[in-house]
Design goal:
This protein is an alpha/beta fold. It has 9 helices and 6 strands, in the order E-H-H-E-H-E-H-H-E-H-E-E-H-H-H. It has a 4-stranded parallel beta sheet with strand order 2-1-3-4, with helices on both faces. A two-stranded antiparallel sheet has the order 5-6. Helix 7 (176-186) packs antiparallel against helix 8 (191-202) and helix 8 crosses helix 9. The longest helix is centred in the middle third of the chain and has 34 residues, at 117-150.
Length: 224
């Protein structure tokens, strides 16, 4: 009787690879060693690079599900359950779909038989924690960004006609051209006339759209 065939599933988002070192190479090496220890024959490696755990429309994941339905392998090895999905409902949907085709998922961080009631409960709890931590992090990130904005710092691409001050966070201050736009607008000139005047005075490339955007940013910074 031949060895049981296994598929290796790997996912990493760009941010995770940079910040946490959860590289594709590291996951692949770990899974290959795991397969070797258990005497699995590796059918194939399915890799989704740069995809969020919230997105199920991943090409490698969809190919994995298709091959599982065709019974190309009987087990999927995955480094961590959050590699499959960070959403409890999605994770359970995928694993239950594969189980219907006699293909089981195994995760190194909770290597239990999820076909048993106890295993399913444990997997649900772990997937639930992954969902909670993702949502909690998003909440804390939103709160932090709101605080940064409230303190007068800038988030995002530095707008045209503004200068940068680097402190703990980024601050932007209006250039002379931006202040001139503000002055001309207070004199009730149209955006197009302001663009023409500022382009001539400062010898810069500017149109009415940039004038409008500059005024909006000044308003955000409470400088209009």
């Amino acid at each position: 009787m031949g060895s049981e065939k296994a598929a290796l599933y790997i996912r990493v988002s760009t941010e995770e690879q940079v910040e946490k070192g959860a590289s594709i190479e590291a996951q692949k090496e770990f899974l290959e060693e795991w397969a070797k220890k258990e005497d699995f024959e590796v059918y194939g490696t399915y890799t989704d690079e740069g995809y969020s755990g919230k997105n199920l429309k991943r090409p490698a994941l969809q190919k994995l599900i298709k091959d599982a339905k065709n019974k190309e392998f009987s087990v999927v090895l995955c480094y961590h359950n959050d590699r499959l999905s960070r959403d409890t409902k999605d994770a359970l949907t995928i694993t239950q779909e594969l189980l219907r085709h006699q293909v089981r998922f195994r995760f190194s961080n909770l290597d239990v038989d999820i076909t048993s009631p106890e295993g399913e409960l444990f997997f649900t709890l772990q997937a639930g924690f992954a969902t909670y931590f993702r949502k909690d992090l998003a909440r804390k990130t939103r709160f932090g960004m709101q605080k940064i904005k409230k303190d007068g710092y800038w988030i995002g691409r530095i707008p045209d006609l503004f200068e940068v001050e680097r402190e703990k966070h980024t601050k932007v201050t209006p250039s002379e051209a931006a202040l001139r736009i503000k002055e001309l607008r207070q004199r009730k000139l149209s955006y197009r006339k302001i663009a023409t005047k500022v382009a001539e005075e400062f010898e810069i490339d500017i149109n009415h759209v940039k004038v409008y955007r500059t005024l909006k940013i000044l308003e955000k910074l409470k400088l209009q």
